[in-house]
Amino acid sequence: AAGLIAVVDDDEAVRDGLEALLESWGYETVAFPDAETFLENGLARDVTCLLLDVRLPGMDGLELVAELRRRGHYVPILMMSAHGDVSTAVEAMRRGAQDFIEKPFNVDQLLVVVSRALEASRLRRENATLREAEVEGLRLIGKSHARTTMKGKLDRVARGGSRALE
Questions:
Q1: What's the pTM value of the predicted model, to 2 decimals?
Q2: What is the number of other CB atoms lying within 10 angstroms of the CB of residue 28?
Q3: Residues 153, 155, 163, 48: is their CA dihedral positive or negative?
Q4: Could you tell me the pLDDT band of residue 154, with boundaries at 50, 70 and 90?
Q5: b/e per residue 121-141 (b: at least 16 CB within 10 A)
Q6: Residue among 86, 74, 164 nearest 127 (CA)
Q7: Which end of the chain is more exposed for a tag (fewer CB within 10 A), N or C?
Q8: Alpha carbon of 152 to those of 122, 132, 136, 159, 163: distances in Å?
Q9: Where does residue 84 rank: exposed (0-12), middle (13-18), buried (19+ CB within 10 A)?
Q10: What percent of the chain has pLDDT over 70?
Q11: pLDDT above 90 for 14
Q12: DSSP labels for 38-107?
């Protein structure tokens, strides 16, 4: 399996159907009836893809996207809606969703969209790992004037808490 896919939908039949379909493709899944239960479960960091209904009791899907981004969770989010219209799709993407799927699903399209989201998740994690390794591996060597000047500048920027090097 290529990670953990979460399904958040208040319709039990949709949750069960998606779980069965995703598991038949070899994915590990977990499902929740609403946004609050998903957040309380604490799995947000472990999920590699989130299938999220727009209309939910309590916090709706768009609010959950914003909340996850606010908390620094950048899991690929696929918004689902039976009430899908262009403005909702645009708003979902603006808030950070990766894609938008209309119910009822086209199974082939769903597989493509989920595969694409999982690839995006894999690349994001790989990139973060490489960035960490790069920072740990960054050693300035030598005694030249240019090296000393650069080291001084880097130290000043680092102490200042600036985002200049990001």
A1: 0.73
A2: 13
A3: positive
A4: confident
A5: beeeeeeeeeeeeeeeeeeee
A6: 74
A7: C
A8: 36, 22, 18, 11, 17
A9: middle
A10: 86
A11: yes
A12: HHHHT-TTTEEEEEEESS-SSS-HHHHHHHHHHTT----EEEEETT--HHHHHHHHHTT-SEEEESSP-H
Cis, bond preceding 33 (omega within 30 deg of 0)? no
pLDDT tens by residue, 42-85: 877 889 999 999 989 999 999 999 999 899 888 899 998 876 66
Residue 38 token pair: 């998903």
Residue 45's identity, in one-letter code, is R
Judge whether residue 1 has pLDDT over 50.
no
The structure tokens listed for 45 are 């960091």
- Residue pointed to by tokens 């893809």: 49
Query: In the predicted model, what is the mean pLDDT of the chain?
Result: 84
Residue 100 β-bridge partners: 79
